[in-house]
Design goal:
The protein is mainly beta. The protein has two helices and four strands. It has a domain of about 60 residues: Surface presentation of antigens (SPOA). About 10% of the residues lie in helices and about 25% in strands. It is flat, with a radius of gyration of 27 Å. The protein starts with about 40 loop residues before the first helix and ends in an 8-residue tail after the last strand.
């Protein structure tokens, strides 16, 4: 099978975008009608599974050191032993707790539900 040399590609000339008229949107004011979702419809949400992430800590190191890691290496986290662990739901910190062992698994004992999700403290 013979390969042919690639065909020369001519550079595209950039054409400026056409002018577009932009107007401010005028929408009617939303009015609270007092409509509420019947209680039974929340049951659908109550059975929904959500993913919670526990942030144990983080570490910074030069790439040179990172490339030296191998089996048995220990990465020292910046968080002190005993410091609270952050719990994250949909990218927002909502609680803090302490790391515990439950049988042969790790767990988090919740110590604080944050009043303002994502708040530091």
């Amino acid at each position: 099978m013979t390969q042919l040399p690639p065909e020369p590609v001519e550079p595209e000339t950039a054409t400026p975008p056409a002018a577009v008229e932009v107007q401010e949107a005028r929408l009617p004011e939303a009015v609270d009608t007092g409509a509420r979702v019947p209680q039974g419809q929340f049951d659908i949400l109550m059975d929904t599974t959500v993913e919670i992430t526990a942030i144990l800590g983080d570490a910074r190191m030069p790439a040179r050191d990172l490339l030296q890691l191998g089996p048995g290496a220990v990465v020292k986290l910046e968080k002190q032993a005993g410091e609270p662990v952050d719990l994250i739901l949909n990218g927002v910190r909502f609680a803090r707790g302490t790391l515990v062992v439950v049988g042969d698994r790790l767990g988090i004992r919740i110590r604080e539900i944050l009043a303002t999700p994502g708040a530091s403290g």
